[in-house]
Amino acid sequence: MNNTQMPAEMSACPEEMKAAYQNYNPRAAALEEARALLTAAAGAAIQAGDLPAVELPAFIMEIPADVKNGDVASNLAMAGARAFKKAPRQIAEAVLAHLPDLKNSIFARAEVAGPGFINLFLAPGWFTSVICGATLNEAYGRTDYGQGKKINVEFVSANPTGPMHLGNARGGALGDCLAAVLDWAGYQVAREFYINDAGNQIQKFGKSLSARYLQHFKGEAAVPFPEDGYQGVDITELAAAFAAEQGDALVEADEEKRRQALIDYALPKNIAALERDLGRYRIRYDVWFRESTLHESGAVRAVVDKLLESGAAYVAEDGAVMYRSSQFAAKYGAANKRRDEDEAKDEVLVRANGVPTYFAADIAYHYNKLAVRGFDKAIDVWGADHHGHVARMKGAMDAVGLSGERLDVVLMQLVNLMRDGKPVRMSKRTGKAVTLVDLLDEAPIDSTRFFFNLREAGSAVDYDMDLAVRQDSENPVYYVQYAHARICSILKKLAAEGVAYEGPLAWAGVPFSDPAELELVRAIAAFPAEIITAAQKYDPARITRYVIDLAGAFHKFYGACRIKEAEPAVRQSRIALCLAAKNVIANVLTMFKITVPESM
Question: Which pTM does this prediction carry?
Answer without folding.
Answer: 0.92
